């Protein structure tokens, strides 16, 4: 505090003879606009990730289970850190003592769970690619769910300490009273906690990810495909019939495995880059006095944190064809359901039949057929592969 500050017996209340500090109008406008934009996109995107995995049977894989955990954690960060920042800009702290405790707890819970989820799917990818035989027994959906439950229980218990470390502070100025949510302990006491968080949920996950993705890259990039999978039309031996179909399926599986690994690697890199400004600031402020609190740099650090929680669904859409198709189908099915609800008062039943008159060999999967029968709203068409019959 400044020299003109007097402290009463109640440590949560101080008197400052100066006027209430107010943020510049341009800083308020930029903060509110960026926060609403990033949080709006992030909340919508992470909700879509959760919905497409839970509602689409073939999307329920071990990796996607970890991505759902990451999406839920990012939602908590955006709701508990992003949205309260809007009101804090214009009206200081309005959520009271209970809100201070709960919001702080949820912020660190979401941050720590997201870090643990990234570490979990990195290890899962390493086992799936570098130890493919063991992966058949280790990398299962049921095991992924148990690991996710353990992550949430561990981080929930770990973050309980924040209930005892934060408190509301009331400062009386000459023109009003300001209530803030801050730490109840001195800076020297909570710095070790910050360094513990810094090590457990940033440094260690990045070290693990760097080592494991290096091993994965050695397998995927440096190890060539078998010669029979590298044969292409016009060169070498030409495979026909079932053998050619098998080779194409193998190539497709290898390509899909590389794509999902690249996507997850991008998620890890963005996590490292977008969290670096804030983590660096905390470390630097631990050794300088007074700490560096430039308002524009603090705003930049906050926006990077919010962007990290909002950008993952965009990465999935850009780099994963399965997620891209699932996102489109989710939006299309919701729109068609609303449109048909106004036209039909009785349930519709759809059946998919193979059209033998077409030359395409693309099969209609059982999962797609069951999906349309259960939802009663997907008006899907299978190009050159199926016809749609409707009965009531």
Automatic annotation (TrEMBL):
Signal peptide: none annotated. Its main location: membrane. GO terms for cellular component: membrane. The keyword Transmembrane helix applies. It holds the Pfam family 7tm_1. The chain crosses the membrane at residues 29-54, 66-86, 92-111, 147-165, 193-216, 260-276, 296-319. It is found in: Membrane. One of its GO terms (molecular function) is thyrotropin-releasing hormone receptor activity. Residues 45-316 form the G-protein coupled receptors family 1 profile domain. GO terms for biological process: phospholipase C-activating G protein-coupled receptor signaling pathway. Keywords: G-protein coupled receptor, Membrane, Receptor, Transducer, Transmembrane, Transmembrane helix. Belongs to the G-protein coupled receptor 1 family. Receptor for thyrotropin-releasing hormone (TRH). Upon ligand binding, this G-protein-coupled receptor triggers activation of the phosphatidylinositol (IP3)-calcium-protein kinase C (PKC) pathway. This is Thyrotropin-releasing hormone receptor.
